[in-house]
């Protein structure tokens, strides 16, 4: 994907700073989505012999354990890309101490970036919507997967916090967040990266909050405004008071017991890595890895 094709409403520097933070706990919503995505693993016909959890600190610490329970005999790899501090935190949380019986008798567990074509399932929960170059990230997933392997992922969709976007527009304020990608566009990007048979699914979840303060706290834990045209200075106390007042007036829902209600659109997807194909051209280039895969298939 060229620079001209990058998501136009994500500031790459801001996205990198947000991604580089070290977290002690995954957001509650991410853990809930991990549970729902784990339930979708029953759709997959075969169990992987090994799998990779891509950025588990953000994606869900409890969610990682759920996938381990789903595939108790599968070797696992943890690839935390956020920062050096995040990598150390991941080893603290997921690493097995040397004296643990599971370290020596259970399935292997490794840390770091997976080798090319080495894993049969790649798990990536709630990562794509904050990536400055999502096509490049999808390409990394494709590169890590073995032929016949598959990716399972989730992310936020365009209708996420639509009520707050509408409020900001009505007030004439700069946008409160970057635009989210539609699930059909994610499917196109998967195919562009070389995946086959992408299956996309979507649901909307309504979250309720007792106060505007609690709502804003939850949103700060979930992400930041990565839009290049976001307000460039610190907001004053008067703005916060006005915002909380508008949230209380506009988002209070009698059907939700008088609590403040906002919408989150959740997109789920999975796709397989097919056998490599040689492009039919006068001069064709084939990677060594793809050539080996085609030769193995020929011998079979």
Briefly say what this structure is:
This protein has 300 residues and is of the alpha/beta class. Helices cover 40% and strands 21% of the residues.
Question: Topology of this protein?
Answer:
Layout lengths: L11 H8 L8 H12 L10 E5 L1 H4 L1 H10 L4 E5 L4 H11 L6 H5 L3 E3 L7 E7 L8 H11 E12 L5 H10 L11 H10 L3 E14 L2 H11 L14 H15 E2 L5 E14 L15 H12 L1
Parallel strand pairs: 1-2, 1-4, 2-3, 4-5
Antiparallel strand pairs: 5-8, 6-8, 7-8
Helix pairs in contact: 2-4
Overall shape = globular
Number of E-type strands: 8
Number of helices: 12
Strand content bin: 15-25%
Output the structural class. alpha/beta
Helix content percent band: 25-40%
Radius of gyration: 21 Å
Q: What's the rounded overall pLDDT mean?
A: 90
Distance between the termini: 36 Å
Low-pLDDT stretches: none
Order of helices and strands: HHEHHEHHEEHEHHEHHEEH
The description of the largest β-sheet is: 8 strands, mixed
Q: What can you tell me about this protein's structure?
A:
The protein is about 40% helix and about 20% strand. By secondary structure, it is α/β, with parallel strands linked by helices. Strands 1, 2, 3, 4, 5, 6, 7 and 8 form an eight-stranded mixed sheet that branches. α2 runs parallel beside α4. The longest helix is centred in the C-terminal third of the chain and has 15 residues. The radius of gyration is 21 Å and the shape is globular. The two termini are about 35 Å apart. The model has no long low-confidence stretch (mean pLDDT about 90).
């Amino acid at each position: 994907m060229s620079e001209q094709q990058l998501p136009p409403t994500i500031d790459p520097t801001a996205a990198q700073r947000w991604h580089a933070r070290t977290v002690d706990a995954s957001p509650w919503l991410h853990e809930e989505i991990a549970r729902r995505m784990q339930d979708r693993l029953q759709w997959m016909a075969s169990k992987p012999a090994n799998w990779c959890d891509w950025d588990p600190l953000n994606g869900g610490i409890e969610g990682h354990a759920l996938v381990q329970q789903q595939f108790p005999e599968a070797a696992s790899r943890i690839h935390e890309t956020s920062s050096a501090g995040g990598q150390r935190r991941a080893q603290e949380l997921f690493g097995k101490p040397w004296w643990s019986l599971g370290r020596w008798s259970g399935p292997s567990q490794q840390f770091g970036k997976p080798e090319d074509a080495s894993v049969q399932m790649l798990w990536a929960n709630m990562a794509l919507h904050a990536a400055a170059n999502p096509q490049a990230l999808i390409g990394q997933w494709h590169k890590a997967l073995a032929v016949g392997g598959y990716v399972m992922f989730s992310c936020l969709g365009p209708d996420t916090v639509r009520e707050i976007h509408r409020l900001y527009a009505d007030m004439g304020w700069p946008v409160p967040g970057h635009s989210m990608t539609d699930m059909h566009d994610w499917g196109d990007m998967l195919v562009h990266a070389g995946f086959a048979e992408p299956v996309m699914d979507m649901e909307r979840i309504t979250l309720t909050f007792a106060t505007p303060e609690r709502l804003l706290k939850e949103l700060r834990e979930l992400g930041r405004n990565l839009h290049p045209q976001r307000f460039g200075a610190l907001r004053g106390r008067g703005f916060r008071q006005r915002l909380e007042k508008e949230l209380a007036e506009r988002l209070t829902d009698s059907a939700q017991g008088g609590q403040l209600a906002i919408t989150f659109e959740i997109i789920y997807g999975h796709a397989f890595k097919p056998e490599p194909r040689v492009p039919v051209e006068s001069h064709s280039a084939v990677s060594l890895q793809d050539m080996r895969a085609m030769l193995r298939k020929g011998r079979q």
